[in-house]
Design brief:
- The protein has helices at residues 12-23, 37-41, 45-55, 65-73, 91-96, 106-119, 143-150, 174-192, 205-210, 344-350, 355-365; strands at 6-11, 31-35, 59-62, 80-82, 100-103, 123-128, 156-162, 218-219, 244-249, 252-256, 261-262, 268-269, 274-279, 296-299, 302-305, 315-318, 330-337, 340-342, 368-371.
- Helix 10 (344-350) packs across helix 11.
- The strands form 4 sheets. Strands 1, 9, 14, 15, 17, 18 and 19 form a 7-stranded mixed β-sheet that branches.
- Helix 5 links the parallel strand 4 (80-82) and strand 5 (100-103).
- With 373 residues, the protein is α/β, with parallel strands linked by helices.
- The radius of gyration is 24 Å and the shape is elongated.
- It binds pyridoxal-5'-phosphate.
- Residues 35, 83, 164, 204-205, 220-223, 230 line the site of pyridoxal-5'-phosphate.
């Protein structure tokens, strides 16, 4: 029995299961970079990285220099790629910790080369190309001139090109095919200019799942490792297990007469007698206020609708018709209860967002408990 009011559990055995399922989706020689940025999508950078390192992952991708340094301080020696690149003033620390850098600025290239020269090392970079994401990266026509600008920087080692897919999760792959084609032609063009580029990569979870031609030398899944399909409407052909779950104990039970208002704004009035459970989870726990009068939780394996507004620390659900609910019982906000499941995708629907945001919000707002370590 969990004794805390709120329980955010991260199942590392499920994470390992998902990792092994995903490994089977690409050829054995294709490396896998686990995207563990944003505190491993809210699941906790170090426990997740330790589990995946032990399971045999090849690379990690993080968001910031700080996350990269945390991995090193935890004794993780696998290659780590800083997916957002660095600021020039971070070059010394990045090189000092042997962190690889997504590169898209010449001033950062110079800073890295200078830092590497000082430390008697080579700085490893992956040239970030914007093939259609419209986010970080140099444009396709800038790739060869950018590489030419790196030639004099002797302490840089260009590992490869990296790009990111904008709509790989959609069933229509027309745009994605264009991105992949543009990317592979750039790799070829750069190789023709003498760049070896041992490790170029573009495949996120969706491309790992559905686009073998995009796997190249390395795939970079994030979301599917954490148990969610990239497209909620098309379940992937691998059996993923949810890694994160959130539950709370019923704090108070009450029976309200017809005509009673519930929560701030009096947005819900009971049409009849109502058995109400007050639960100690609110938006401070990363649970979206958009769940007000819309979301559900699971109690005794049954769905209980949220009544009224989600508050900072509390949410009220109606349990009329669910027999025997009492104070101290467990209410599941995310996860499984007997035969019923509330997935991150379903929560995302209520909150008008995506499962990625659900994981980041819940995982970083609550104390995490690890199982399957
Ligand atoms: C550069 C990059 N590569 C790979 C990923 C992983 O994407 P997904 O979680 O959809 O697998 C991300 C995530 O946003 C990313 O930013």
């Amino acid at each position: 029995m969990i004794t805390t009011m709120v329980d955010l559990a991260v199942d590392l055995a499920a994470l390992e299961h998902n990792y092994r399922q995903l490994r089977r989706r690409s050829d054995p020689q294709v490396k896998m970079l686990a995207v563990v940025k944003a505190d491993a999508y809210g699941h906790g950078l170090l426990p997740v990285a330790r589990k995946l390192a032990a399971a045999g992952v090849d690379y990690f991708g993080v968001g910031s220099l700080e996350e990269g340094l945390m991995l090193r301080q935890a004794g993780i020696t696998l290659p780590v790629l800083l997916l957002l690149g660095i600021l020039p003033e971070e070059a010394d620390r990045a090189v000092g910790a042997d962190l690889e850098v997504a590169l898209f600025r010449q001033d950062v290239a110079q800073a890295l080369s200078a830092a590497a020269a000082n430390q008697g090392k080579k700085a490893r970079v992956h040239l970030k190309v914007d093939t259609g994401m419209g986010r970080l990266g140099v444009l396709p026509q800038e790739v060869l001139p950018f590489l030419a600008g790196l030639k004099k920087l002797r302490h840089l080692q260009v590992m490869g090109l990296i790009s990111h897919l904008a709509v790989a999760d959609q069933a229509d792959k027309t745009y994605t095919h264009k991105q992949v084609q543009a990317f592979t032609s750039l790799v070829t063009a750069a190789r023709e200019e003498g760049w070896k580029l041992p490790l170029s990569h573009i495949a996120n979870s969706a491309a790992l799942w559905e686009l073998p031609e995009a796997h190249m030398g390395l795939v970079r899944p994030g979301l599917m490792l954490y148990g969610s399909p990239p497209s909620p409407d098309r379940p992937p052909p691998v059996a993923l297990q949810p890694v994160m779950s959130l539950s709370a104990r019923v704090l108070q039970m009450k029976r309200l007469p017809p005509g009673s208002s519930i929560s701030y704004g009096c947005t819900y009035t009971t049409p009849d007698w109502c058995d109400l459970a007050v639960l100690p989870v609110g938006y401070c726990n990363g649970y979206s206020r958009l769940g007000s009068n819309r979301g559900e939780v699971l109690i005794h394996g049954r769905r209980a609708p949220i009544r009224g507004r989600v508050c900072m620390n509390l949410t009220m659900v109606e349990v009329t018709g669910i027999p025997g609910v009492k104070e101290g019982d467990r209410a599941v906000f995310l996860g499984r209860d007997q035969g019923e499941v509330l997935s991150a995708e379903e929560l995302a629907g209520w909150a008008q967002t995506i499962s990625y945001e659900i994981y980041c919000a819940l995982g970083t707002a609550n104390l995490r408990r690890y199982t399957g370590v």
